[in-house]
Amino acid sequence: MIELGNYNTLKILRETGVGLFLGDDDVDDLLLPLKYIPDEFNIGDDINVFCYLDHEERPIATTLKPLIKRNTFGWLRVAEVNEFGAFLDWGLEKHLLVPFREQQTKMIEGESYVVFCYLDEKSFRLVASSRLNKFAKNEDISLSPKDEVDLLVSRQSELGWDVIINNKYQGLVFKSEVFQPMQIGATLKGYVKKIREDSKVDVVLKPIGHMALEPAAKQIFEQLELAGGYISLHDKSAPEEIKEMFQMSKKTFKKAIGALYRDRKIEIKDDGIYSV
Prior knowledge:
Blueprint: E1 6-16, E2 19-23, E3 30-33, E4 46-53, E5 59-62, E6 72-82, E7 85-89, E8 96-99, E9 112-120, E10 125-129, E11 148-156, E12 160-165, E13 169-174, E14 187-195, E15 201-204, H1 215-226, E16 230-231, H2 239-246, H3 250-262, E17 266-269, E18 272-275
């Protein structure tokens, strides 16, 4: 079954003067217009296309890559505002409608907004909404502290920056933990710092704990933990001993344990290094 607002892998059934007709087990007349036909193809080939409704509300296929797809969030510019609502440029010929009722604040032509794209069950049309709280809900959170996550910056507040996490949840990056330029609509990587009892998620932009260490320091710290918190090597150990255990030079080893020491993750003693 074809899913509107998403990519579908369909079979090329026949070629006509207006384009290729595609299908699957349920549909056999989905048009891929002439201008989107690949240079090389064969009848019977599978092709990956994006499916949506054209200007006459008919399902149609395209090989263009939209800026947002169904059930995801994105940062889109308003191309036009009329009596029906705001129309967003999402990279396709037909713009994406945001009805007035789905605008958190009145949208202005030329401005950009974070929105959620979904299929309206009443009209069976793809629409968008800037009422993000309706779609990003912190229920049944499948995240853990230190997880690497994808972020979309959605709003700036007194506390910091609101973010959408993995296209599912709402999170917050406190302004005291931001050390880089930030702007609404930016996509970046983050790390889960804490999941609170009220299901609010705190996020940071740098790796947490030993994940933040350079590779050599990370390797040493992980091996130290596996060894129960003690390794009989230190900054005065022979280069051969260091190379045998860690496959690194003594210079790299000393730099790495120095970083671990400064981060108060280890103690360096005469008989070796200890985890703190």
